[in-house]
Amino acid sequence: MDKEKKILDTALKLFVEFGFHGTPTSKIAKDAGVANGTLFHYFSTKETLIKELYVSIKNELNQILASQANPTDSIKEAFRKLYFTTINWALVNQDKFYYIQQVHFSPHLAQIPEEVLHEQSKMHITFIEKAKASGDIKIMPNELLYTLVNSQIMGIYQYVLTQPTDQQQDSIEQGFEMIWDLICSSQAKIYE
Amino acid sequence: MDKEKKILDTALKLFVEFGFHGTPTSKIAKDAGVANGTLFHYFSTKETLIKELYVSIKNELNQILASQANPTDSIKEAFRKLYFTTINWALVNQDKFYYIQQVHFSPHLAQIPEEVLHEQSKMHITFIEKAKASGDIKIMPNELLYTLVNSQIMGIYQYVLTQPTDQQQDSIEQGFEMIWDLICSSQAKIYE
DNA sequence: TAATAGATTGACTAATCAGTCGATATTTAA
DNA sequence: TTAAATATCGACTGATTAGTCAATCTATTA
Question: What is the DSSP string of A47-67?
């Protein structure tokens, strides 16, 4: 297996379990089955490793979301896909989803260039603008809409985690109706 | 000034800015104006300091919320107070609010005993049960309600942070209408 | 006053860890 | 086949840091 990838995988597992501080690079290398120096051959510093792991995970999710997009979908359908795909991806990749938050609430986030972060949310912002233009969505600032949807997804995800597997999809569905109700314009609702 | 409190205040500031790893105990002691040994007199380990800081902050917020509670308030009014007080407290105490999330997405959370965490959310859970019994709130699991409200508060808070001060209260108000709309029973809505 | 307990100090240490480096192996390209 | 480039190794180091400790100071109490 590709050693660079092995290092990333191992780092993810250890960072999530023991935190950044609690994970020495030597342990990452050892668990990944590579020499100490090899880790620094691929990632010049520990900080670089932390950042590149973050970016690779965000890219993975974004690529999956992009692959689902279908121009002929209605706004609601498109939004539904975004929501379901994200939550289900998070359920299958709990470590990765957790790691995103872990970086988000750490000083490492400030080390990631603004343009990289912007690149990550670009797709969502474009979608939001399209949705608003369609009139299916309440008039509100883009930022607010983005933040609300994000936090709702976080909330539902966290709740679903506490549930038995066979009830999860129902809850996700309910969560979708709620958030859609929250953001769709009442006008659109009437004619729905 | 009380040295123990000075240490906690300094630790908060440094942890938020530089993270747990990036903040040596020696720097906390120095910035707090106490000797190295004094820090360990009050907090036997760095881990203890991290945990006690978390608990003290949560307690502070909970006490403020409890002091606002008024038994004669309607459910909506009581919920409104909870929501407004939390967000406004968060705006005034951004470091503390951030620190709560920082601990939440770190391995340190697992070090805090279940009973302490439960104690922290007890008030909210009691309120949720009262609200549900009143019929003003949609029928849904306590956990879901709790998580949804929490994440909605996080979302609104984060959005409000990006806004100029003079528009913040309006946004918080709008956010309240949204979340109330999300959780109040349609039956109660009709007779409102 | 004398005695006890707690608070405070800062130099010190044992351990850890991020990152280096020179040597060796492997792959690629000419 | 040869040469250059890249990958891999792991012992090593310089710096850092959590936590200790014996000594001193301060407050309380009998």
Answer: HHHHHHHHHHHHHHHHHHHHH
How is residue B9 written in tokens?
A: 């205040």
Q: Which residue do the tokens 């539902």 mark? A: A156
Note the pLDDT of residue A35. 95
Quote the CA–CA distance of A44 and A49 in Å, as a whole number. Answer: 8
d(C-alpha A96, C-alpha A8), whole Å? 11
What amino acid occupies position A163?
Answer: Q
Q: Which band of pLDDT confidence, cut at 50, 70 and 90, is reported for residue A191? A: low
Alpha helices in B2-141 (DSSP H): 3-18, 25-32, 36-42, 46-68, 75-92, 94-104, 114-134
At B186 the pLDDT is: 66
3-state secondary structure B133-189: HHCCECCCCHHHHHHHHHHHHHHHHHHHHCCCHHHHHHHHHHHHHHHHHHHECHHHH
Structure tokens at A92: 């299958």
Instruction: Say if the Cβ atoms of B156 and A178 lie within 8 Å.
Output: no
Q: How is domain B54-190 classified at the architecture level of CATH?
A: Orthogonal Bundle (1.10)
Question: Which residue ranges in chain B fall short of pLDDT 70?
Answer: 1, 186-192
The set of residues, in sequence order, having a beta carbon less than 8 Å from that of B61 and lying 6+ positions away, is B86, B89, B96
Contact in structure between A76 and A134 (CB atoms under 8 Å): no
Residue type, B96: K
User: Which CATH number among 1.10.357.10, 2.40.50.140, 3.30.70.270, 3.10.20.90 corresponds to the domain A51-191?
Assistant: 1.10.357.10
Closest CA–CA distance from residue A69 to any residue of chain B (Å): 25
CB contact under 8 A, B156 and A171: no
Chain B residues near residue A181 by CB distance under 8 angstroms: 181-182
Mean pLDDT of the region A37-63: 96
User: What is the full DSSP assignment across B105-126?
Assistant: TSGGGGGS-HHHHHHHHHHHHH
Please work out, in degrees rounded to the nearest 5, the angle formed at the alpha carbon of residue A48 by the alpha carbons of A43 and A50. Answer: 110
